[in-house]
Amino acid sequence: MSADRKLYEGKAKILYATDDPEVLVAHFKDDATAFNAAKRGTIVRKGEINCAISTHLFQRLEACGVPTHWLDTPAIDRMHVKAVEIVPLEVVVRNVAAGSLCRQTGITLGTEIDPPLVEFFYKNDELGDPLLTRDRLRLLNLATPEEIDRLRELALTVNRHLSEFFASCEITLVDFKLEFGTTSDSQIVLADEISPDTCRLWDRRESDPERRVMDKDRFRQDLGQVESAYEQVLERVLAQVEASSNAAT
Ligand code: 5GP
Question: Which residues are bridge partners to 92 per DSSP?
Fold first, then answer.
């Protein structure tokens, strides 16, 4: 690879070009932001932890037939990913009520949601990432109805696999946000990252509503022990990956 040429810097990652126009490098940063970057900080080792967790989850999803942008992970905090055009939507799946769902509807925190809820938000910081209706999606022409159906189906498939995987780590997958991109050959693939930054993860070994939080809500809500929560998620993911590879051999 020639000298890295920075293409884009986001809140959690920097994207660099490589010699191959179809391949980019995603560098995971330790920077943490919340509330549309109104709150900023650093989570020590977050970049490498999120890169490692995302690597394992993308590999797992690929093995289950979900196409992702992940190619390989050449360094602890860097991934090679397919160059894609990001669909300007955040697709959120919820298994348990938390966050904006509770704030906007009054549903009690922790209420089980079955079947899972799939929501589309407009990925637009200036507008504060608003929730979209089906009609607004059509009005804004952000994706065709067929693409919306495909995103919904992919998001639910990801949810099935990840809920099961996290359950085997004794973690409840409360909710998560996905981003998708379109490759040069018009394939829709899962992009961005899947990590404690983008998922709500509750420790099944803890019943206390604050102690069970293993994700970015610890940073958002100043709950403390942010680093150790992220490390604990990685530790359990790695243990489970190793257990399943031992079982396969
Ligand atoms: P909520 O809508 O409740 O704020 O978020 C739902 C889920 O999506 C949570 O797991 C949250 O972490 C994730 N999420 C939603 N929007 C964003 C975002 O802009 N950035 C990140 N990192 N996660 C988000």
Answer: 119, 177
CA angle in degrees (0–180, nearest 5) for 169-71-244: 25
Distance CA 233, CA 53 (A): 8
Q: Compute the distance from residue 105 Cα to the ligand 1 centre, in Å.
A: 16
Q: 240 CA to middle of ligand 1, Å? A: 25
For the chain, percent of residues with pLDDT exceeding 70: 99
65, with CB counted inside 10 A (0-12, 13-18, 19+), is exposed
DSSP assignment, residue 127? G
- What token pair was written down for 164? 């099961």
N residues, the chain: 249
To which residue do tokens 């639910």 refer?
156
Q: What is the pLDDT of residues 183-204, one digit of tens each?
A: 999 999 999 999 999 999 999 9
Ligand 1 atom nearest the C-alpha of 102 is 3
Residues whose beta carbon lies within 6 Å of some atom of ligand 1:
90, 92, 98-101, 129, 175-177, 197-200, 216
Residue 178, token pair as written in the block: 């996905």
Tokens of 233: 């998620």
**Single pTM value for the model:** 0.97
- The candidate with the shortest Cα–Cα distance to 123, out of 198, 222, 49, 186, is 198
